[in-house]
C-alpha cells in the first residue's frame, strides 16, 4: 500500500523526471512505440495483479460511502483493462508529433519562419480516481517525448502503482529511463 509523498520525495521525483527528459529529447518514433508496446504487454501480463490492487481500492472506496458513479469510474475489470491496453495501441498508431512544422511564412526581415513541435520536457498531471488515466496520460507523454509526473486520486493508489510499474517495465525493456513515468504516492 502506498504512503503519502513527502516534500523531499517530491523533490527526488522531480529530479528523476528532469534527468529522464534529457534522454527523451532524442528518442526515435520506433523507440517510443516499442516502449508503449512493451507497456501494453506488461499490463496484459499483470491483469490479475492489477485487478487485485483495484479490489483493494474498491474495498476502501466502498467504506467511504462515495457516490456510485465515482466508485464505478474507479473499478477496473477485464474489459476496462483491455480497453486501457487498446488505448495504448491507438496511441502507438498516432503520428509522431515531434519535429513536425507548420505555418511557414516569410518574416518582414526575409527569414523563413515556421512553428516546430518539440517536447515540453516534464508534464505534471493531476486527475481524479480513474486508474485508466494513469496509462493514457503516461502513454501520451511518452509518445510526445515527455516525462510525466502523475498524481491520481488517493482512492486509486493501489491500481495506479501497478499501472506505473507496468509502464516503467515497458520503458526499461525499450532501453528508456523508467523515470519517464513517475507517480506521486498519495494514500489517505
Q: Numbering strands along the chain, what is their spatial order in the largest sheet?
A: 3-4-5
Secondary-structure element order, as H and E? HHHHHEEEHEHE
Rounded average pLDDT: 93
Percent of residues in beta strands? 5-15%
> Which residues sit in consecutive blocks of at least 5 with pLDDT less than 50?
none
Rg of Cα set: 18 Å
**SSE class:** alpha/beta
Portion of residues in helices? 55-70%
Report on the structure:
55% of the residues lie in helices and 13% in strands. It is α/β, with parallel strands linked by helices. The strands form two sheets. A three-stranded parallel beta sheet has the order 3-4-5, sandwiched between helices. A two-stranded antiparallel ribbon has the order 1-2. Helix 6 links the parallel strand 3 and strand 4.
Question: What is the fold's blueprint, element by element?
Answer:
Layout: H1 7-24, H2 29-45, H3 47-63, H4 68-74, H5 78-92, E1 101-106, E2 112-116, E3 122-126, H6 131-143, E4 147-151, H7 157-173, E5 181-183
Parallel strand pairs: 3-4, 4-5
Antiparallel strand pairs: 1-2
Helix pairs in contact: 2-5, 2-7, 3-7, 5-6, 6-7
Short description:
The protein is of the alpha/beta class and 188 residues long.
List the main descriptive attributes of the protein structure presented here.
single chain; 188 residues; alpha/beta; two-stranded antiparallel sheet
Amino acid at each position: 500500500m502506498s504512503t503519502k509523498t513527502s516534500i523531499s520525495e517530491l523533490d527526488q521525483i522531480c529530479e528523476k523526471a528532469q534527468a529522464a527528459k534529457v534522454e527523451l529529447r532524442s528518442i526515435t518514433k520506433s523507440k517510443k512505440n516499442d516502449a508503449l508496446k512493451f507497456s501494453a504487454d506488461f499490463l496484459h501480463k499483470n491483469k490479475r495483479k492489477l485487478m487485485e490492487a483495484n479490489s483493494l481500492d474498491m474495498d476502501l472506496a466502498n467504506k467511504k460511502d462515495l457516490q456510485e458513479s465515482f466508485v464505478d469510474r474507479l473499478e477496473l475489470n477485464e474489459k476496462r483493462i483491455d480497453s486501457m491496453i487498446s488505448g495504448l495501441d491507438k496511441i502507438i498508431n498516432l503520428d509522431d508529433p515531434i519535429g513536425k512544422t507548420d505555418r511557414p511564412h516569410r518574416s518582414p526581415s526575409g527569414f523563413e519562419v515556421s512553428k516546430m513541435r518539440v517536447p515540453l520536457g516534464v508534464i505534471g498531471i493531476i486527475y481524479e480516481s480513474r486508474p485508466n488515466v494513469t496509462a493514457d496520460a503516461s502513454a501520451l507523454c511518452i509518445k510526445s517525448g515527455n516525462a510525466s509526473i502523475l498524481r491520481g486520486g488517493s482512492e486509486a493508489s493501489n491500481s495506479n502503482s501497478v499501472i506505473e510499474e507496468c509502464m516503467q517495465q515497458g520503458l526499461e525493456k525499450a532501453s528508456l529511463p523508467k523515470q519517464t513515468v513517475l507517480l506521486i504516492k498519495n494514500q489517505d
